[in-house]
């Protein structure tokens, strides 16, 4: 793969657990798979995100690797999104560190020079949906139980502007406006209809389909494809780069409000009860 | 409802007739209805708009009110749009005052913190369509006689950029470009297909459906929903706020041209003949 | 037609062959036809583009002419796009001159005050597709062999930002992102589904349909229609005007790279073999 786009900082260099994502590179095809294996729900903890960014950076810098498929090793869930425990009852410094990592993940994914394909084999709310939205192509398993969407509003929080920009670039302004305000979680069929995903397949066909789509995208000359991708996404990427620290401060101020902390605690209680 | 967004001026404080809109607030649900009852066609005269803005501001400042449904008490017409008599044969000062009121109406509607639902129970050309477009959701009666669209070009005039921005945010650039240039008035079925409205219902189901949609939107926490709505609409709202006086001057200069005045007089003659 | 938009330079004043485009003006309807007759594939050579710009300027300045239909006199091809021989093995000065002509063509077409209708009666890759995209309305012959799209990436080159802007304004961000990265050439049926063209007709009905569509657009008052068109397209037109020389330099630097020259030579070899 080509060198990463300039202006993006290096991967965070803090110690982290290194077993939440399985990375496999098929050197014959130049296609890597990043398989999320952080049960129970592949939540995007600081550890997960750090491992994700470092893994992605390694692939980006590996000349043998031209594309990545993202999928889950946990049944029924692609990723449940940002780990709420990272946003609840922690210090301002922790919130800031966490948010910078989330920004970093998005900047690397949305700006990746590699072809990125989401093979969505389970539900994918909030940050899980964001990972799919940053990809070049989204294939979802046509299971009526699997849902996808940016449901932040349901939790009493607000998707940041760059989640919104990514969503608008994918589904247009009107679908984004309605779906974000309602915090909608869409069935796979509805996600296809709205353009949130590009294609549905039976679960048994998912890996085969992802490989076929990847081959189609890799048939193009890398250089022309990368410049075209950058042309399409640069305005939105630049917007976060220009407002990154401001966005961190907004997040920290918002999330540390007592009213928001209370909502999140209630939401976590609800999740715990559901489980037991 | 939350306080109105900063930067919007207070409602105009001129004397006006106060019987063109019926406002009812159901305190149990927190939902108000603004019912247009200005026969024959609910045209948006300066009086109507002033009453509309003051009514809306009162609801916005009323903590008991979280949502508004807009509908018509006049059969077969939602609103015929801006009152042409306000734009024809009057003074420059009058044109300016009228246009500031139209801007004010749009700024309050498109930027409202409340959930806004248009229950479009009749035809809705020009400014009538604009009111619908500013809402969070549009339900239209599936009557083949009812039409909707921004048909300004048919009259020889041009929709202002903020009508256009609202339209583009709803239906996308291409549909807006074609529909605005042709000054199209679309049937309800076509309006649904193009995304001008979100749903069609039989007339007898309209109020029930509007209440159900409102309940769905009110199920979300107000604060998160309002911040999300603002994030989606801020760029377009800010644009008019930044160019408000310039836009007034453009309107006054354009509308007071003799060629435009002549078109409007001819159009009014045609309407009068149609009636008799 | 009204005078051309200010800020656009006069047509290039170099000698050129004057037989690549047949221009006919029907004075009764005010509708001109520009028929491309530059076999074998109506490629957009510097000569073709110069003739095109001068022809278009004459119509724009002719008060009898209110609309133009673009179509091809060469069977099975609308236009094959930019002439690769103009971009291969020539001097930097030539590349710059050629690119300024391409910009000029786009500025005049996308900003035309006349109603413009593309009657696409053959395949229309790259620059051929661009001509269609700049029009107010696109009708394509429903022949399964005819394809259309901005396939630059297939050749290892990148569509300039103003091709991209025109495409996004027509089909939205997501369709453009995918189609441009894959350099897709779409069948007529798919082009209709994606919004690249507005309508399909059997070949025998094409001219009749184009005339009917033109009559529909000409039914609107010119002044209101032109101001509306300008409002929709101004942002994108202004962007190239503001970055015109920078865009020329980018093109010249890119196209004169040895790697790009090599791709283009290979592509031309392939085309020659195909022919023989």
Automatic annotation (TrEMBL), chains A, B, C:
One of its GO terms (biological process) is fatty acid beta-oxidation. SUPFAM superfamilies: ClpP/crotonase. It is found in: Mitochondrion matrix. Its EC number is 5.3.3.8. Pfam families: ECH_1 (PF00378). One of its GO terms (molecular function) is delta(3)-delta(2)-enoyl-CoA isomerase activity. GO terms for cellular component: mitochondrial matrix. Pathway: Lipid metabolism; fatty acid beta-oxidation. InterPro entries: ClpP/crotonase-like_dom_sf, Enoyl-CoA_hyd/isom_CS, Enoyl-CoA_hydra/iso. Its main location: mitochondrion. Keywords: Acetylation, Fatty acid metabolism, Isomerase, Lipid metabolism, Mitochondrion, Transit peptide. It is an enzyme of class 5 (isomerase). Homotrimer. Belongs to the enoyl-CoA hydratase/isomerase family. Key enzyme of fatty acid beta-oxidation. Able to isomerize both 3-cis (3Z) and 3-trans (3E) double bonds into the 2-trans (2E) form in a range of enoyl-CoA species, with a preference for (3Z)-enoyl-CoAs over (3E)-enoyl-CoAs. The catalytic efficiency of this enzyme is not affected by the fatty acyl chain length. PANTHER family: ENOYL-COA DELTA ISOMERASE 1, MITOCHONDRIAL (PTHR11941:SF45), ENOYL-COA HYDRATASE-RELATED (PTHR11941). This is Enoyl-CoA delta isomerase 1, mitochondrial. The gene is Eci1.
């Amino acid at each position: 793969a080509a060198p990463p786009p300039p202006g993006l900082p290096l991967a965070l260099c803090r110690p982290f657990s290194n077993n939440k994502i399985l990375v496999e590179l098929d050197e014959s095809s130049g296609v890597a798979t990043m398989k999320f294996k952080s049960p129970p729900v592949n939540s995007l903890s600081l550890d997960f995100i750090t491992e994700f960014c470092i893994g992605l950076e390694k692939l980006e810098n590996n000349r043998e690797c031209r594309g990545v498929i993202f999928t889950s090793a946990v049944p029924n869930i692609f990723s449940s999104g940002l780990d709420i425990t990272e946003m609840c009852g922690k210090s301002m410094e922790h919130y800031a560190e966490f948010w910078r990592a989330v920004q970093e993940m998005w900047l690397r994914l949305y700006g990746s020079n590699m072809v990125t394909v989401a093979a969505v084999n389970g539900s994918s709310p909030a940050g899980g949906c964001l990972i799919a939205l940053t990809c070049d192509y989204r294939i979802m398993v046509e299971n009526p139980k699997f849902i996808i969407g940016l449901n932040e509003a349901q939790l009493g929080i607000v998707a940041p502007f760059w989640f919104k920009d990514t969503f608008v670039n994918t589904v247009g302004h009107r679908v984004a406006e309605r779906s974000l305000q309602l915090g909608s979680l869409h069935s796979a069929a509805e996600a296809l209809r709205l353009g949130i995903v590009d294609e549905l397949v039976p679960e048994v066909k998912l890996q085969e389909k992802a490989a076929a789509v990847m081959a189609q995208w890799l048939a193009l000359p890398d250089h022309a494809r990368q410049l075209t991708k950058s042309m399409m996404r640069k305005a939105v990427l630049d917007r976060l780069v220009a407002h990154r620290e401001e966005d961190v401060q907004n997040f920290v101020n918002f999330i540390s409000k007592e009213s928001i902390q209370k909502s999140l605690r209630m939401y976590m209680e609800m999740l715990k009860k559901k489980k037991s």
